[in-house]
Amino acid sequence: TIIVLDGQGGGIGRAIISALLPLLPQGAQLLCVGTNAMATAAMLKAGAQRGATGENAVRWAAQNADILIAPIALVLKDSMMGEITGDMAASVGSSRATRIFVPTERCGTHVAGAHGVSMQALVEDAARQAAAMYFWPTPGVLNKPPWPVSESMATFSLWRISMPMHMVAMAP
After folding, report:
1. Strands 2-6 and 67-71
2. Helices in 66-114 by DSSP H: which ranges?
3. Burial (CB count within 10 angstroms: exposed 0-12, middle 13-18, buried 19+), residue 94
4. pLDDT tens per residue across span 77-109
5. What is the pTM of this model?
6. Which residues contact 17 (CB under 8 A, 6 or more apart)?
7. How far lies 93's CA from each of 96, 98, 167, in Å?
8. What's the CA gap between 30 and 148, in Å, rounded?
């Protein structure tokens, strides 16, 4: 089960779902959870099969997802103008799901290597990673996508920072 989490207006979650749906086969379970009703509605409109809203829904998603995709703010207490509670952040941060975070600078947190990369490129990379994990689930290993990947520096940087730390030294 892939679950996309988002808050505020749900724009990043909507973009992730729009980018991910074409990469998944018919019948793949793509769910969404919003921290508020607007975010959930935006993600449902983008094509998620089912959605839920609120703090308990975020905790449920963290316990039941195989893959979680969210803006990095979902693991930062009081981010998104206070929408993210400590329980939400702790649930997502301690989830056993494979987590894919989209870095945003709006939450006051900067991720090294993501500077200057467009939000669209970050969202598309998150979608490709989730699709690769859906097709070839290998716990703890970032699977290479089954399609050609541009060798631009931005793509390489995104690929490298999304790898487990012990594999970064082996990156080409």
Report:
1. parallel
2. 79-82, 86-93
3. exposed
4. 998 988 999 999 999 999 999 999 998 876 677
5. 0.74
6. 4, 30, 32, 43, 46, 47, 48
7. 9, 11, 21
8. 24
